[in-house]
Amino acid sequence: MPTEIIKTYLGSKNKYTKMEQTPTLETARKLGLLPEEFDQIKEILGRNPNFTELSIFSVMWSEHCSYKNSIVWLKKLPKDSPRMLAKAGEENAGLVDIGDGLACCFKIESHNHPSALEPYQGAATGVGGINRDIFTMGARPIAQLNSLRFGNLETARTKFLVKGVVKGIGDYGNAFGVPTVGGEVYFDDCYEINPLVNAFSAGILDTKNPPARATSYGVGNPVFIVGSATGKDGIHGATFASEDISDKSTAKLPAVQVGDPFQEKLLLEATLEIIQTGYVIGIQDMGAAGIICSTSEMSAKGKHGMRINLDLVPMRQPNMKPFEILLSESQERMLVVIQKGKETEIQRIFDKWDLHCAQIGEVTNTERLHFYMGGELVADVPAEPLVLGGGAPVYYREYSEPAYFKEFQKFDIQTVSDISEAEISEVAKFLIAHPNICSRAWIYEQYDSMVGTANTSTNQPSDAAIVNVKGTNKNIVITVDCNGRYVKSNPEEGCAIAVAEAARNVVCSGGEPVAITNNLNFGNPYLPEVYWQFVGAIMGMKKACEKFGTPVTGGNVSFYNQSTPKNSSGGVENAVFPTPTIGMLGLLEGVENKMTLDFKENGDLIYLVGRSENCINSSEYLYSYRKIKGSPSPKFDLDYEYQVQEAVKQLISQKLIHSAHDCSDGGLLIALIESAMPRGFGFSINTDQDFRKDAFLFGEAQSRIVVSISPAHQIKFEGLLEDLDMDFSFLGTVNKGGILEVDRREIMLMSVAKSLFFSTLPNYLA
Amino acid sequence: MKFGIVVFPGSNCDEDMLYTLTAVMGQKAVKLWHKDHDLQGCDFIILPGGFSYGDYLRSGAIARFSPIMTEVSHHAQRGGYVMGICNGFQILVEAGLLEGALLRNHNQKYVCKNIFLKPAQTDSLPTKKLNPKNTYQIPIAHGEGRYYASAETLRKIEENGQVLFRYVSATGNADEASNPNGSLNNIAGISNIGKNVFGMMPHPERASDPILGNTDGKNILESLLS
Lengths: 766, 226
Known about the structure:
The structure holds 2 protein chains of 2 kinds.
Chain A: H1 3-11, H2 25-30, H3 35-45, H4 51-60, H5 63-66, H6 71-74, E1 84-86, E2 94-99, E3 102-110, H7 112-117, H8 119-135, E4 140-150, H9 156-176, E5 180-187, E6 196-206, E7 222-227, H10 237-240, H11 261-277, E8 280-285, H12 290-302, E9 305-309, H13 322-327, E10 333-338, H14 343-352, E11 356-364, E12 368-373, E13 376-382, H15 403-409, H16 421-432, H17 441-444, E14 465-468, E15 474-481, H18 484-489, H19 491-508, E16 512-521, H20 528-548, E17 552-558, E18 579-589, E19 605-609, H21 620-625, H22 638-653, E20 659-662, H23 667-676, E21 682-685, H24 693-698, E22 705-709, H25 714-723, E23 728-735, E24 739-742, E25 745-749, H26 750-765
Chain B: E1 2-7, H1 14-24, E2 28-33, E3 44-47, H2 68-77, E4 81-85, H3 87-94, E5 101-103, E6 111-119, E7 136-142, E8 146-148, H4 151-159, E9 163-168, E10 187-191, E11 197-200, H5 216-224
């Protein structure tokens, strides 16, 4: 240990920095703490905290770090399967065995609040943060996704946010060199003030080397801070993410961090190299709550303490106060504890990559964190009480059904007149060009989707992205899904649908669903109606994950996606749609077994697997075309969904189908157009007299998959589904003319559909 | 032929190029570290894509000062083969080994998508094995790929047959609609006058492995072996 650290320790025993004044309850309140939490802190310390210590508790006990308002419900989610190597909450990200000595590490995380104020940096640092969670485990990220929500595309604010967020994700992810292979984006007025920016990353590691862990032990082992220097950016970012956005929020701009993808790329390479040495005891990235979060979480897990000299932290600017150094959320940093005596090995690797690598302290047996600065002890706190699962508060929040729920259930389809034959074309054109359905090319062409030469979906698209694990015949199949409108209509069913749709996308791509990560975006948890949405969503996720055998490996809770506009109650109606985004990992052995969504041959037969329903609930058609905002969630039966997916798996494995694409936003007709578009085909299909035309063509009842087959396979195909007792119906045929026909009437040309599909986003955002 | 792929801090297509040359094409290839001065006996030096030094200041502007670039320049001056792809092309231009400049795309946006290329001639190493009547579908991924040169330089490189590839439509027309970044004369790749230093913005290595569903780029890489 450098002599200056020792000197500091010796010279400062039991001395506390004199604070300007002892913090009061009022100070605590300003830092976002409740009165009872302030009392609890005094009890834990056995004295009044100084300002630095109070700041420490305020960030560590913020929702963002402690999950204090969500953990009791999160614990109800299934966490286990034979494939789990690291379970939810145990490490920086979940770890799933994918066979043959390989594991996949994946996670999703939100950066909603920063993106609402500074979309470019907010989104960029979201990408940086999630990737650090992956490579701090020793896994090399191979693919990224993102899930975005914005307000009305007509408004200047939304255009500003979309452009900034997309450029932020692109600039960071592109330079970092990991492909962005898919994602989703929805627009709705409810996200006008609070956009959602959820970033997903998946990495691969070799299980021969045990994964790096977020722990700390071994008295005397050196503690290093590596990567970027520490500045004043992002201080109290975690606290900021734990409150509603208001007109005062721009005053929190310093709470937004600034990203540097070049540093992150170097940090990735250096981190993987040091983990390879085997000398790393523990490592954790510095995201929310910076140094204090990493030191306390690693120490609590390893049941040790740390002595840290803040003077040794490489700093970007002079005169930083202790609390600023401890709470700074400067990006591209890691805390590393290594075996004593291996300091030069680690230093050599960071020198190679031209990165800071500074020893700032050592591991102690105290189970407390002692921070020194300028020769004085500036904070002395126990590790365990700071962290989730330790002494951080846990709350059971009250919840109650919002009044809108019963209102939505009253919707009666009979009050909406069916569309005429002539109207089919009009509705189809409206939907194909709708911002929630149209092509996302304007967005994804700004992302490098091909670096790594492993994205097999570029030239052969599927419902989920299929990414090859280089050097093997294995592929990860990944998708992010959530229709917040469904979840608002019915949190339990809507969230179960989100899991089911993710699984359906994986299955339609030829994959086997394996596990999920979740990003729970909700309003203010102190509102019982919002909390009711949260509880319902968890219960829906639980039952669906149990059905598909896909445990929750971890994720992120983002509350307070809620604004308090002037002249409003700030109630559940000012919250975003409850949006529990599901990121699913699936596996596909053998890329030759993948399934794609595009029609392949003129004359192929088109079938619907699953059954049609007289249901237009919560469809884009009902919500946007008919402008009826309140209705129940779409028809959905979890057991039936599972059977449909099992049937499609068999159709794929027996090579009986040429394409598979699920019916989701916009319903059956939109699914057909999307399947016909890539190769410029048309189709001719017939509706069914037993169903309303709007429900048959544009309803969003779940568990329906459009497949195309060669006429030569018709008997086998039908035979297999009959044997499985699975519903199916013949819809029509694929044609090469590029004409879209329903009941022998031309509804539009593929060229028209294409131009509508591709022009919406450029028209708004050019 | 032994290939050497230079790894700069921030390179991110180095691994893809190594994989394509070795696992897909069965060639000998090694990585060369930017701080070294040793080309390890390589015959053909490749500067891969990525964001060397974060592309801060200007793409390629810092990387050209990396120690290994002295050796790469000497290799080129001795007539050795050097090829820059994407960021590598930008570095070669900054290093003065290729003429012209690569400016910010005309729409000010980074763009990643498949485009079509057509060889401008077939008497350079990268185009030798190509069919001049064919179009080749190859991905691009860059924010600064708009080829620019003075009128005099442009005339000279056109006359000398230094243009390797042009952006074209699927049917082979070098029109404005097929130009993804505003490059002069739809130029996607050029060589030096000695025809031993090559630069191109599109990524042939991203269209070589059959699992990607497009192997048009392999034709270009195979041409290098002739």
